[in-house]
Every structure is written in C-alpha cells, then in structure tokens.
Amino acid sequence: MILPGARGLAAVWVLVQLGSAVAAASPADPGQSSAVLEEILVTGQQPGPGLWRVTRPGDPNGHVLWVLGNYSPLPKKLVWRPTEVEATIRTSQVVIAPPSINASVGPLGGITVLPSLIGARNSPDGRRLAEILPGDLYARWLTLKEQYLGNNDAVERWRPIFAASELYEAALARSQLVPYAGVWPRVEKIARKAGVRVVEPEIEVKIEKARAAVKEFKRTSLDDVECFERTLRRLETDLGLMRERANAWAVGDVERLTRLAPVERATACIGVLLESSLVQERGYGDVIERARLAWLLAVEEALARNASTLAVTSVDELLRPDGHFARLRRSGYVVEEP
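Below the sequence we write its predicted structure tokens.
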C-alpha cells in the first residue's frame, strides 16, 4: 500500500514514517528466525516472482487479470529484471497501482500547517524514553541504538513510535535492505512509457481544521510501548528472516515466500495510530480497510472491461488469510499461482 505525504495531519504523517507495511501480518515463527540470521542477500539481476492469474469462470470474453505481488524491504543491490511484467504490460489495456491515501487540507493548507509539525515527534510531556519505557525494554533499546543509531541524543526525546521507526530504518540500511515502495515505481514507469493507462485506487481524507489537529496530536499521548517493543523484537530476532523473504521475492520463489510468515512490525504501530482518539473522533480509523476495498473494486472493474489487466499490490496483502486473493475467491474468481 502507498501512504500519503505529510501534509496537514500529523496522524497521517505517522503512517508515512512507519513505511508501507500495513498488512495485518502474522507473527514470525521464532524457530525460523535463528536459522536464517546469516542469510546472504542476492545481488545482480533477478526476475522477481511470477504473476498470479485471476479469471472469472464462464466469462465469455476470456478477460484476465495478472497480479504482481510487490514486496519491501528488498536488497539494495538487487537489479530487478521485469521481463514477464514488461511483456504483460504491452498486451494489457490498464495497469492498476497499489492503493493510496490522499490527505487533503485545502488551498495553501499544506504550506501553512507544515510549521506546526515541528516538534510533533517529541513526547508531549517532555519525558525522555528512559522515563517512559520499562527498565528492561529501555536497556534493550540502548543496545540496538548503539548498534544502529550511534550517539543520537535527540531521539531520546521522541515518542516511542517515532523512535522505533528511526531505529527500524537505520537497521534496514545497515542490513543493505531498502524499504517502502518496492518495484512499483519501475512498473509505473514501464506502463507510462508503453502508453498504457495507469489507474490509481485512492481514497480521499479531507482534513478539517488541520492546524488544530496537529496541535491536538502534540498534546495527545499514545499507547505506543507495545509498538516499540515489537519493533525491537523484530530487529533482535528477525532481520535474517526479512533477508530470506527478500531473497525469495527476488528469485521468484513463491512457495518459499508463502511459507515464510510475514515479518510483523508495523501492525502494532499503525494500530496505535488508528485507535487513538485523534483519528477515531475524525472518522479516519477505517482508512486502511477503505484503501483495500478501493483496490479490489478497481481490479474487478478492470477485469470486467478489459481483455488484459496488470495490477500491483503488496504480496502480504495478497497472501494473508483474509487478503485480496481470499476475498476474490469468495466472490467466485479463480486465482492461479505463478
């Protein structure tokens, strides 16, 4: 899923800082983690996964939907060779992007509210992490902070949710993994160069009184210690599993990718945001589910109208038990694996 820019609402801005892992992922199997900590990242040209094929039985026109499962983080030195994707785009009428959330604050709103974001990462009561976190959790933080962030005192004044994000990004960089958009920007570039229409499923979030919302966010405490602890746990035990999943995606090993449990980190952090009073009272608590439904609606409409469609979204969104493919199957579609 693609998340919005930081214009107008600090709550939405938190989502940006946490990256693109918004699927309700299952916890990783601790037994797998220790076995793959020394996993070597693949480099050079790699094909990525094949395309899933979606059809509706009895369709007299024989329309087909091809789906590419996007993934991040990916190896920094990976060169994706999208041969199958390029060929599919050339014979398709539409390419569908991952869903996105557009936060709108009205004319000039983004410019006038940005100064209010300064300090939004800081703890609202001025406490440092040492005062917020349990002693054992803070000790674990100090070990990982020294390893990945070094002598950074400013982060000690941040809310746990932001400190966790900063640490996570630094750990990925040290591990030669690149987060966020995966290969979608490359797919979009190929489609536009080929003159194929790109459909971007998007939901609009209208931010009323954005400056007041930012000020309220600065005053609001978040129950984000669980998010912080889960992030530390992932970095302590599952960086190797992240690397193994990245390798499986890069070489197109769908069976291995499916077998490995998604590395859960962002679920708890995004849950903190979506369950906060700031978000709930403004009616934004369902934005992720709305974005998922927007993508499903776009692909069903495209499949009905076009002989061939290529769609891209997070591979975790596709494969989780209640994910996109599960919903499509319940609606009568046939999904064939690569």
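The radius of gyration is 21 Å.
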